[in-house]
Amino acid sequence: MGRPNQSPVLITHFSHTHPLRLTAAVDANCAACALPASPPSYSCPPCGFLLHLSCADLPTLLVHPCDPAHGLGLLPRPPYPDGAYTCDACKLQGWGFVYHCAACGLDLHTRCAVAPLTVGHPAHPQHALALTFEAPYGEGKGFSCDMCGRGGAAREWMYRCAACEFDSHLACAGAATALAYGGGDRGAAAVGASGGGGRGGLVESVAQGIAVGFVQGIIGGGGGGGGGGEMVVGEGMVL
Ligand SMILES: [Zn+2]
Ligand SMILES: [Zn+2]
Ligand SMILES: [Zn+2]
Ligand SMILES: [Zn+2]
Ligand SMILES: [Zn+2]
Ligand SMILES: [Zn+2]
User: Fold this and answer.
1) Where does the record place the DC1 domain (predicted)?
2) How far is CA 27 from CA 10, 11, 36, 106, 202, in A?
């Protein structure tokens, strides 16, 4: 997804003390998302430390509709003694980077935090599925995923068509692979409009108008430098 010829060869990143170099193949998992490397990546080989290009470019502050009162800060490791957290979106554990709101005790995987606000899916082609932060069936009631048939927790995020009461886990709707951070593009990254990057079930995004603006320079000095800055999920949404 990245554009290696536009990426600087050497970067500094707040999550690691040594400079990170653009490298082809390193046998390590990404420190941010814990998924295997997909070369080229940024790495510090002596430490076995690696970041995907897109993960190295994650904004350090995220404004998200799930917690509109607070910005979510990007932490390089969970703020808990056991070094793990439970993602409030997908309810799965995480060990790498986390988007965290201390006031709410909110923790999100980076991949969940940038999940598109709407997706299209061939299992429900007639309508777009909207990212929904809790099941609408009453206090403490979960949902049943219409993709896989298994249950979801009450406060678990889901993709949903309200008109048809079609509910889906994030992963079942392909959200986990529908990432489009912009791959190093400055200015704007379109989440959910990765055009052709339809692996994992997101065949075609209905949400092609969703643009996520990178507001450079609010945090980290910006000005065309490395990653960082603030990202507003859902801002500039045009349907
Ligand atoms: Zn990664
Ligand atoms: Zn190192
Ligand atoms: Zn998650
Ligand atoms: Zn909060
Ligand atoms: Zn499911
Ligand atoms: Zn529908």
Assistant:
1) 14-56, 70-113, 123-173
2) 19, 20, 8, 31, 28
Neighbours of ion ligand 4 (CB under 5 A): 67, 70, 101, 103-104
pTM, rounded to two decimals: 0.73
Confidence of residue 224 (pLDDT cuts 50, 70, 90): very low
Residue at token pair 């988007």: 99
Q: How far is the CA of 72 from the centre of ligand 2 (A)?
A: 26
Name residue, tokens 């969940």: 112
Q: Which residues contact 138 (CB under 8 A, 6 or more apart)?
A: none
Give, rounded to a whole angstrom, the gap between the first and last alpha carbons of the chain: 25
pLDDT at 228: 52
Ion ligand 2 — residues with CB under 5 Å? 18, 44, 47
What pLDDT, on the 0 to 100 scale, is given for residue 102? Answer: 96
Name the nearest CA neighbour of 211 among 181, 186, 234: 234
pLDDT tens digits along 97-150 = 999 999 999 999 999 999 999 999 999 999 999 999 999 999 899 999 999 999
Distance 161 CA to ligand 1 centre (A): 30
Tell me how far CA of residue 154 lies from CA of 58, 136, 145, in angstroms.
28, 8, 12
Within 10 Å of residue 110's Cβ, how many Cβ atoms? 25
170/153 Cα distance (integer angstroms) = 12
